[in-house]
């Protein structure tokens, strides 16, 4: 690098540039927080949905599936599972019917032995998720 | 080694290598489960093996960063570590907490682990990379605070160099951003939004500062190039990192319920994120070309150059590949993501830790500057085996990803996820076989610590004739 460009100048660009873009990022975050209520389907977050989210977490579903495209890539996207599986009944039926020892030779989902209430909560959570405004993602129903 | 207390780094580096081996074993289990779906089912389901794989990765990288700091901070500050005893204590706390957590994953069903550890009191579990029980997370914060105190005190009361300062900023940022792991609202969109403040602002933000400062340290030591020159480069690189990387977070805010203007902010700024990685490559090669000495530790120089190149390929090139919103619309959450994640993590963070280990370990094991020739040759073999197999793992996953995206998301008759997975199984087999080659490389790497350890050291120091 040229001699005319000194270490002090480089340092100032680092501090000044980082600070500027950090503040800009915080401003964008602030604006996003303001815009979210119209997009994030928060009016649908009931006790049931919150319970469903907790169950989603403590069973580590994200360790195999993606949710809105984030997670693991071993099993199907679930952000639109409510639509793909035909509503709550489809989701509940699928989760309930997993064989305990899996399907020989194939990737299998564990049998979690959820109660009916838990199954309902998970389905409610996935219903809420499917109604978040994701700018039309995924491209089609296959996720 | 100029200061006694630098030796605590040896503990950290040894643990890092051990956990790295564990990470790879579980990677191979995952890779096999991809094609032999019922492998180890239901004893070790995929999600459990994956948590072990990714959490071991994060933990060994953190061990590596801490070891690097304990090694280079005293040397840069020109004084002993503030408290070597605290460093040893925190090592054991971290190792035991980490081991218990991994055993918890493997031995208890995850929901049981959540219950045992009181997740209900402050639910933070069950999110990717942040699966640790809340008490483990609190433990991580305590270890991080003690660590920052220790190196902070050393730096503040010693010689202040840019390398130390940048490292300290990076490590402080790492600890501060981790606090967002404790924020887990019921609102999924907000949960995801701030989750990225840990994950993205780590790997494309503050960790790059840590990477840059370790690389700068090793280059100062091995090339003898004037510190002023290296420090100027370091400032420019990390300036570009944060200028592009902070707003670049927006490349994760396209499809998770956040406003659509992020498609612009995210695309534009993250498209610039390869710049600092490219500069790092130019920097490393430039410094080695302008070297004033031929350091006898050739393996360490190879690792340093390799880090710069592979970080650019994995983060810069493979990151750019899918970062523009119209592309990401199709590739989001596919094998393309996995391909990029592997090469970027290996190229940037695994390799920088292996670089500092390669540079520092010989001296901590009683050598003057470098290992014997036999040991170095073996280490360089392991470098090539691991690095080339990671390139191929990335290429196979990219192949799988392109087909997946086409068949499942782009073609006129999109096929279901599982149908597509079966069609592209060949690529997963190739990835798994290549993973075995990676494992061979890792075995050779570990062997290089034992082979030729009685042989004489590579002759020290011939003055170089600078080519530039
Ligand atoms: C060498 C053999 C390896 C194999 C067979 C392997 C296999 C895998 C598999 C199957 C996954 C899960 C993908 C999914 O969610 O569906 C995974 C995730 C991951 N692995 Fe590896 N891995 C290996 C080595 C490594 C190395 C060396 C690193 C980094 C240094 C690494 C870093 C990661 C990361 C960061 C993830 C999460 C990726 C994401 O979320 O996109 N792996 N690995
Ligand atoms: C060393 C630096 C980097 C590392 C370690 C890294 C690692 C990762 C990992 C592990 C993921 C997957 C996260 C998940 O599981 O959801 C990811 C996603 C992503 N990365 Fe990076 N990355 C780095 C740099 C970059 C850069 C410089 C760019 C852009 C030029 C980039 C672009 C992306 C994009 C667009 C995604 C989202 C993929 C998706 O939509 O599924 N990354 N990265
Ligand atoms: Fe990112």
Largest interface: A-B, 75 and 77 residues
Q: What's the multimeric state?
A: heterodimer
Note the beta-strand portion of chain A.
under 5%
The CATH superfamily of the largest domain in chain A bears the name Cytochrome c-like domain
Task: Report on this structure.
The complex is a heterodimer of chains A (143) and B (468). The longest helix of chain A has 29 residues, at 7-35. Helix content of chain A is 49%, strand content 3%. Chain A is elongated and about 70 Å long. The relative contact order of chain A is 0.15. Chain A has a two-stranded antiparallel ribbon. Chain A has two domains: 1-38; 40-143, Cytochrome c-like domain (Cytochrome Bc1 Complex, Chain D, domain 2). In chain A, strand 1 and strand 2 (70-71) form a beta hairpin. Chain A is an all-alpha fold and 143 residues long. With 468 residues, chain B is mostly helical. Chain B has a domain at 1-160. Helices cover 74% and strands 1% of the residues of chain B. Chain B has 16 helices and two strands. Chain B has helices at residues 8-35, 46-77, 84-107, 110-116, 134-156, 162-178, 188-223, 227-248, 262-271, 274-289, 298-321, 325-331, 335-364, 373-410, 417-423, 425-447; strands spanning 293-294, 462-463. The radius of gyration of chain B is 22 Å and the shape is globular. The model of chain B has no long low-confidence stretch (mean pLDDT 97). The chains are: A mainly alpha (143), B mainly alpha (468). Chains A and B meet through helix 1, helix 2, strand 1 and strand 2 of A and helix 2, helix 4, helix 7, helix 8 and helix 9 of B. Fe (ii) ion is lined by residues 200, 204, 251-252 of chain B.
């Amino acid at each position: 690098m040229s001699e005319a460009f000194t270490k002090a100048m480089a340092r100032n660009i680092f501090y000044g540039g980082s600070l500027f873009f950090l503040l800009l990022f915080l401003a964008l975050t602030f604006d996003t927080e303001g815009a979210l209520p119209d997009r994030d389907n928060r009016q649908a977050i009931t006790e049931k949905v919150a319970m469903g989210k907790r169950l989603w977490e403590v069973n580590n579903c994200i360790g195999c599936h993606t949710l809105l495209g984030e997670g693991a890539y071993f099993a199907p996207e679930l952000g639109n599972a409510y639509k793909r599986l035909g509503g709550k009944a489809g989701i509940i039926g699928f989760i309930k019917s997993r064989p305990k020892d899996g399907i020989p030779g194939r990737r299998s989902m564990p049998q979690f032995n959820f109660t009916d209430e838990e199954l309902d909560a998970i389905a409610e959570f996935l219903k809420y998720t499917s109604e978040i405004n994701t700018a039309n993602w995924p491209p089609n129903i296959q996720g | 080694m100029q200061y006694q207390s630098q030796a605590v780094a040896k503990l950290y580096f040894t643990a890092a290598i051990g956990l790295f081996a564990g990470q790879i074993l579980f990677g191979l289990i995952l890779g096999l489960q991809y094609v032999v779906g019922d492998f180890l089912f239901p004893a070790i389901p995929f999600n459990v093996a994956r948590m072990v794989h990714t959490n071991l990765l994060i933990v060994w990288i953190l061990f590596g960063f801490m070891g690097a700091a304990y090694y280079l901070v005293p040397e840069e500050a020109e004084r002993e570590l503030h408290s070597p005893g605290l460093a040893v204590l925190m090592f054991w706390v971290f190792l035991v907490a980490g081991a218990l957590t991994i055993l918890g994953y493997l031995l208890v069903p995850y929901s049981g682990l959540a219950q045992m550890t009181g997740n209900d009191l402050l639910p933070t579990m069950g999110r990717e990379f942040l699966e640790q029980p809340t008490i483990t997370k609190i433990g991580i914060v305590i270890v991080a605070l003690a660590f920052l105190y220790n190196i902070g005190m050393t730096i503040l009361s010693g010689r202040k160099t840019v390398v130390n300062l940048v490292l300290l900023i990076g490590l402080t940022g790492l600890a501060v951003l981790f606090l967002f792991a404790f924020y887990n609202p019921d609102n999924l969109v907000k949960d995801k939004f701030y989750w990225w403040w840990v994950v993205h602002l780590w790997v494309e933000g503050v960790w790059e500062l840590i990477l840059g400062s370790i690389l700068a340290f090793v280059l100062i030591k091995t090339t003898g190039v004037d510190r002023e020159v290296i420090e100027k480069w370091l400032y420019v690189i990390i300036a570009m990192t944060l200028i592009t990387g902070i707003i670049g977070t927006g490349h994760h805010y396209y499809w998770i319920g956040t406003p659509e203007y992020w498609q612009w902010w995210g695309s534009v700024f993250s498209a610039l994120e390869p710049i600092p990685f490219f500069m790092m490559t130019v920097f490393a090669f430039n410094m080695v070309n302008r070297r004033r000495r031929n350091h006898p530790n050739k393996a360490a120089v190879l690792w340093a150059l390799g880090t710069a190149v592979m970080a650019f390929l994995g983060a810069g090139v493979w990151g750019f590949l899918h970062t523009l919103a119209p592309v990401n619309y199709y590739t989001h959450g596919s094998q393309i993501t996995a391909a990029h994640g592997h090469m970027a993590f290996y190229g940037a963070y695994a390799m920088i830790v292996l670089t500092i280990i390669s540079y520092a370990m010989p001296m901590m094991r009683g050598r003057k500057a470098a290992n014997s020739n036999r040991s170095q040759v073996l280490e360089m073999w392991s470098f090539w085996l691991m690095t080339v197999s990671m390139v191929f793992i990335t290429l196979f996953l990219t192949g799988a990803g392109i087909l997946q995206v086409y068949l499942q998301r782009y073609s006129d008759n999109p096929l279901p996820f599982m149908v597509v997975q079966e069609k592209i199984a060949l690529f997963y087999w190739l990835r798994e076989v290549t993973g075995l080659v990676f494992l061979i490389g890792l075995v050779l790497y570990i062997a290089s610590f034992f082979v030729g350890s009685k042989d004489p050291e590579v002759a020290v120091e011939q003055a170089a004739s600078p080519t530039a």
